Amino acid sequence: MIEALQFEFMQNALLAGLLASVICGVMGTLVVVNRIVFLSGGIAHASFGGIGLAFFFGWPFMVGTIGFSLVAAVAMAAITFKAKHRADTIIGVIWAIGMAIGIILLDLTPGYNVDLMSYLFGSILTVPDSDIWMMLLVGLAFVGIVFYFYNDYLALSYDEEFAQIRGVRVRSLYFLMIVMVTIGIVMVIQVVGLILVIALLTIPPYIAERYSTSLFKMMILSSVLSAIFTVIGLWFSYILDLTSGATIIAVAGIGFLISLAIERLWPKIAVKSIQ
Questions:
Q1: Nearest to 158 by CA among 29, 25, 28, 274
Q2: Which class is domain 4-269?
Q3: What pTM does this model have?
Q4: What is the tens place of the pLDDT at every residue in 43-77?
């Protein structure tokens, strides 16, 4: 890996991966503890509609994709907040429609042949400096917001009724969380792809939840695990000449299986709940 870091594209890939790990570690923790993994997956897939809009109308990628994704995400969030028993069906519908719109618009874009695989598994080895700086700013903003409202999100995540009794603005914080998750997903999709975003939002937080005693520690451990999976995945992809995004996902999957094995063989190691 040391030898690979002499190349600028590998340096940028490593930085982008580490920043994505922090963003996904913090936001993924909220996604997992609030049980909105399916919602985040729906947002990620629906974002294809925004990608199609951006290319079809010639808009900047971030403007078109974030705009469409936020509309879809707010619609999903409103439904999950009011009618949770129907949430999975409606999310699935919006998910499918968003992807269909995106792919159709990409097909209709005159004179442009889009490689959809690059949006599924990303192009982390071609990340420009501008994207790294943008990810850094977004990451800092998210960390600042989450820790400013840390106690409120802690109450919201584990006992919504108690949070309301305490005077926590549950609805506002929930929608703010959805907006941050959406922006984070779109930001990271451009770098590492849709599939890897979902993997980093779910696998490290799930593992971290089993071995953490607080929401804060879960965020830290989740970010660290994401970073470990990313570095190992990049190293294997370099020495074996494999697709980086898919390799990182494979490494994360192996980590997930190892975690399950440890929990099965040594159940006392796992933490039963987060305070």
A1: 274
A2: mainly alpha
A3: 0.89
A4: 998 988 998 898 888 888 888 889 999 999 998 88
